[in-house]
C-alpha cells in the first residue's frame, strides 16, 4: 500500500483504526513537526500555536489510542468563555464557598463538556446569549439563556452540542434544575 501524501490522512486512518494503516503511514506521522502552523487550541489557550507538542502517538495492538487524559479544571468561583477550545474537558467547583458560575461560550457542534459538583455549593452552567441547555431529567430544552444548576457533591452532567445554539444532556447523576 502506498504511503499517504499527507500526515493528516495517515492520522485519520490511525484514529479510525483503519486496517490499511502501514509502516509508511507511521513514518508520515513521525515526520510531523511541532510548529505553530500545526497546533490547534490546546488546554484552553486563546491563541493557536502557543503550546508545546510532541509527535508521540501511542497505540495498542488494536490501533486504539492509549494514554490520553481529559483535562480537569477545578475552579471555586467558575469561569467564562468555555467553548470549543475546552471540548472534552471536565469542570468542577472544588474548593467553592459560594456559587460557581461556568459561563459557556458560543456553542459549536461536536463540543462535549462535563461538569461535576465537588463542593456542596451551587455549580451553575450558564449558556451563551440565547442558547439553550436540555434539562437532564426530561431532555426538554430550557428557555433561552437560562442556566442549569446543581449543588450536591457527586452530581454531574455531560453536555454535547449536536445543533448550534442547543446543548443536549448525554449523561447525568443527581438533581439538576433550570433557572426560572
Protein architecture, described:
The chain has 180 residues and is mainly beta. It folds into 2 domains: 1-68, no CATH class; 72-178, Jelly Rolls. It has 2 helices and 11 strands; from the N terminus they run H-H-E-E-E-E-E-E-E-E-E-E-E. Residues 36-56 have low confidence and may be disordered.
Defining traits:
180 residues; mainly beta; Jelly Rolls; 2 domains; six-stranded mixed β-sheet; five-stranded mixed β-sheet; 2 helices; 27% strand
How big is the Rg? 19 Å
Helix content: under 10%
Total of domains: 2
Amino- and carboxy-terminal Cα gap? 60 Å
Q: Kindly identify the CATH topology of the largest domain.
A: Jelly Rolls
Number of strands: 11
Largest sheet, spatial ordering of strands: 1-3-5-9-10-7
CATH architecture of the largest domain: Sandwich
The number of helical elements comes to 2
Structural class: mainly beta
Overall 3D shape:
elongated
- Helix-strand sequence: HHEEEEEEEEEEE
Strand residue content: 25-35%
Quaternary state of the chains: single chain
Average pLDDT taken over every residue: 80
Low-confidence stretches: 36-56
Highest CATH level, the class of the largest domain = Mainly Beta
Amino acid at each position: 500500500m502506498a504511503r499517504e501524501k499527507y500526515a493528516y490522512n495517515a492520522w485519520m486512518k490511525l484514529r479510525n483504526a483503519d486496517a490499511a494503516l502501514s509502516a509508511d503511514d507511521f513514518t508520515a506521522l513521525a515526520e510531523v513537526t511541532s510548529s505553530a502552523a500545526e497546533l490547534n487550541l490546546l488546554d484552553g489557550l486563546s491563541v493557536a500555536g502557543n503550546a508545546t507538542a510532541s509527535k508521540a502517538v501511542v497505540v495498542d495492538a488494536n490501533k486504539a489510542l492509549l494514554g490520553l487524559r481529559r483535562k480537569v479544571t477545578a475552579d471555586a468561583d467558575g469561569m467564562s468563555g468555555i467553548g470549543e477550545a475546552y471540548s472534552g474537558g471536565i469542570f468542577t467547583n472544588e474548593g467553592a464557598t459560594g456559587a460557581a458560575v461556568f459561563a459557556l461560550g458560543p456553542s459549536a457542534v461536536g463540543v462535549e463538556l462535563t461538569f461535576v459538583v465537588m463542593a456542596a455549593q451551587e455549580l451553575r452552567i450558564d449558556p451563551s446569549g440565547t442558547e439553550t441547555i436540555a434539562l437532564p431529567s426530561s431532555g426538554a430544552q430550557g428557555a433561552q439563556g437560562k442556566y442549569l444548576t446543581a449543588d450536591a457533591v457527586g452530581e454531574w452532567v455531560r453536555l454535547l452540542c449536536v445543533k448550534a445554539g442547543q446543548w443536549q444532556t448525554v449523561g447525568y447523576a443527581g438533581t439538576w434544575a433550570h433557572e426560572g
